[in-house]
Amino acid sequence: MAFEGLSEKLQAFTRKLRGKARITESDLNEMLREVKLALLEADVNYKVVKEFITNIHDKALGSDVLKSLTPGQQVVKIVKDELIDLLGGADSKIAFSPNPPTIIMLVGLQGSGKTTMAGKLSNLLRKQGKKPLLVACDVYRPAAIKQLQVVGAQLNVPVYANEGEKNVVKIAKQAKEIAISKLNDVVILDTAGRLQIDEELMQELKDIKSNVKPHEILLVVDSMTGQDAVNIATKFNEDLGIDGVILTKLDGDTRGGAAISVKKVTGKPIKFIGIGEKLNEVEEFHPDRMASRILGMGDMLSIIEQAEEQFDIEEAEKLEKKLRKNKEFDLNDYLAQLRQVKKMGSFSSILKMIPGMNKLNVNVDDKEFEKIEAIICSMTNKERENPKLLNASRRIRIANGSGTQVADINKFMKSFEMTQSMMKKVKSGNLDPRMKKMMSKLNLDKMSDEELDDLANKLK
Length: 460
Fold this sequence. Notes:
single chain; 460 residues; Four Helix Bundle (Hemerythrin (Met), subunit A); Rossmann fold; 434 Repressor (Amino-terminal Domain)
């Protein structure tokens, strides 16, 4: 999970601060020393760490924060604001040309994930109403063109490739003409990479830049390489001039040093992040949301956006109509809802984006949900519609069919019965007043410790 180690330490730091009614300069220095070590362990650039700590220290002392009535909360706000600034400050989006097509040139070293990212980016932009064209400009790497064609076919996005042509400038120009004739408003150039930065690679990219004049040059770098990613970004920016960075494999980078250092060191913003291997696992980068995630303050906006994108409206309306007709929530409904949520990503990653959930220490094993899906799929349709049919012999059959134990089925059915009961209460409006109050509060980080403890007990 991205930023895992750093996130744990920074959250421990903010918890200490929130609980303090009085903070001395000595307390602050001691705690900032812990933050400094945490950032260095996360492979954040040393100069960046030094400036970050100095800024927090000066702002906390300079505005009489330590003498205020809520010094802990004010220092937490300073930490969050500085982290947002470190990650880039404001969102940085693609500057689309008023005269289409907008040409986006992806550059980077071999193995950084350029070709897959070209597909992911085309998929994301298509969801935003664009009509992209992928262009194979890597004429050196074996099967590079074929890989892009396969990605394009999976996404149903057109790919232009001239396999007999070795002049990449000519290929890019041809692609631009085709995009104009086919009304493609975005052209994504998948350029060649090398194992290391060399003169030949840079000259080729400079030739494309000067002849095709891309509107955006985005550097694709592997975030797991840490400070090497920052060094690569610096070199590409100095030699070629880039407009932004795309970090791949951020989901596997437990440290996060590249994400935190790259904007401050290069001056170029992170525009997109790869958060998984699937072709839909890419996000626009939002510094404020990422800072909130790192500090354990949640990211409800991203959850809402993912839900709007992934949830099937027809399925939701079908369930609503069913409940309105006083029909009972059954295992078919449960399975449908489970699959809807799965489209948003892992359950553990979703929980981490809910404000306050880090305080509850709720552990979710995604494999348990795969087990539940296998159990439901091993039932007959009649059993799903009427779970009361599940006697001992049927449960043994389902256990054998799903590769689970009868005890697993018993445990799940108890949980499902609680869900059924909750759905009845939601439908009738007959909820516990305390639960109504909690459900009405999306900002769980604003809850008191007593309310969070109460919710934690209900979830156990």
